[in-house]
Amino acid sequence: MHRIKNEGGNSFGFYSMESSVAWTRDRLKLEKELRIALNSGHLQVLYQPIVDVYQQNIVRMEALVRWPHPTRGYLSPSEFIPLAESIGLMEQLGKEVLKIACLAAHKLIQIGKPIHVSVNVHPHQLLHGNFLPALSRVLTETGLPATSLILEITESAVVSDMARASVILQQINTLGALIALDDFGTGYSSLTLLRELPIDILKIDKSFIRALDQNINDLTITQAIIGLGVNLGLMIVAEGVESDRQARILLENHCHLQQGYFFSRPVPYESILQLVNEADLSNLASIKQLCAIVNLK
Ligand code: G
Ligand code: MN
User: Fold this and answer.
1) Smaller CB count within 10 Å for the chain: N or C?
2) Which ligand neighbours the alpha carbon of 81 most closely?
3) Backbone dihedral region of 9: left (phi > 0), alpha (psi from -120 to 50 degrees) or beta?
4) Distance 18 CA to ligand 2 centre (A)
5) CA separation for the pair 285, 291 (Å, rounded)
6) Which CATH number does the domain 43-293 belong to among 1.10.3570.10, 3.40.50.1100, 3.20.20.70, 3.20.20.450?
7) Which residues of the chain have pLDDT under 70?
């Protein structure tokens, strides 16, 4: 049952004594390996650029954790975050990623490239731990101004305990960090949430962007989210932009903050450094194409 639930639920599997023993053994091994990886600094943080198509510039980067596993290859968060959560490692893992990301952003500031860093915060981390003191400590230790940090939270985190989430988000807001609502449109999309909480940014979920140029419903929903956000004075970021057609449609709808494989995959810090150091980013073919689009308008 736990295996099926961990794989996303809403399914069934067959139980046998042998498979159960094998699964438990496998899982215990993975747990042990995750603990070791975390404690010995083996988890990697990659950064995916968020570009401002108008400015033709990288203005932010989203920190995304990866686990280079010795035998299973690169594991993405969806493959080990549920495990980290179930064995109580989520807070430690979250803090570690936050610290690495803040250090990276601080280094960029020091070389005159003030790029905001956007860090995903897991619901557990936000609601169950001592999030605010931990956040303050990381900012002090890394020297990153709070105003250079964006925390990405999901609607489900907020909805699961609205009262507590509200208090914590207000405190984060007072500190000066920005708050982004991640995967917007896939969860509850409660409008009360937008009215009552100090949200600064909406990130349109990539599921709407994927078929933006083929599906009129996806386009309509995307336009509605942009309209809603703009009218509420929020910044809008489109995620999962994979083609120039998608980028162009978003731009036509005044959504100029964009992120996705069209611009860049998540890359190591050294590659970000290289990208931001390019005078005009013209090595990013996609940016070049977009410059042409913007100039045409
Ligand atoms: O939930 P969140 O929005 O933080 O998820 C980010 C994830 O989306 C990362 O795992 C990242 O690798 C992935 N991602 C980023 N850009 C794209 C894209 O253009 N297409 C697809 N399919 N996935 C993307
Ligand atoms: Mn995110």
Assistant:
1) C
2) 1
3) left
4) 39
5) 10
6) 3.20.20.450
7) 6-8, 14, 17-19, 189, 279-297
Q: Which residues crowd ion ligand 2, with CB under 5 Å?
A: 120, 152, 182
The interaxial angle of helices 269-277 and 90-110, nearest 10 deg, is: 30
Q: What is the pLDDT of residue 291?
A: 53
- Residue 231's pLDDT is 94
Q: Which ligand 1 atom sits closest to the C-alpha of 120? A: 4
Determine the pLDDT at residue 159.
86
pLDDT at 166: 94
Cα(206) to ligand 1 centroid in Å equals 7
Q: Rounded to the nearest whole angstrom, what is the distance from the C-alpha of residue 19 to the centroid of ligand 1? A: 33
Contact assessment for residue 238 and residue 250, using Cβ atoms and an 8 Å cutoff: yes
Contacts made by residues 80-89, CB under 8 angstroms, sequence distance 24+: 80/30, 80/34, 81/122, 82/6, 83/6, 83/27, 83/30, 83/31, 83/34, 84/34, 84/38, 85/122, 85/124, 86/6, 87/31, 87/34, 87/35, 89/34, 89/35, 89/38
Atom of ligand 1 nearest to the CA of 259: 16
pLDDT of residue 82: 92
Residues with CB under 6 A from ligand 1: 48, 64, 76, 120, 182-183, 206, 239-242, 260-261, 266
CA angle 5, 188, 97 (to 5 degrees): 65
Inter-axis angle of helices 162-175 and 131-142, to 10 degrees? 20
The confidence score (pLDDT) of residue 156 equals 85
Q: How far is the CA of 72 from the centre of ligand 2 (A)?
A: 24
